[in-house]
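Deliverable D4.2, example record:
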Amino acid sequence: MTVINAERVELCRDDNAFFRLNRHENPMLEDETNRFIQFDVPLVYHQEVTMCLVVLGSRPHLADIYTLTAILFVVLAMSLPLFMMYCWLNR
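Output generated by the structure prediction step:
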């Protein structure tokens, strides 16, 4: 079964939510609205009821790219002296 990061589930009838389930209230996530994907799906057996599902998207973010770049730089900076020491010892 596939796991999704559901942030909010609502059941609506005539644009009035009669059931609402929030995962958590995180103000840091609410500021980044582009991370969320919203689906509005009518229920199969109750066509007048709509399920609104808000999930956290899995798009790469700029902060992740900066973190990976910093880790790569540290690994390269630590590997270079090891490689130079290996070459010096084998000559």
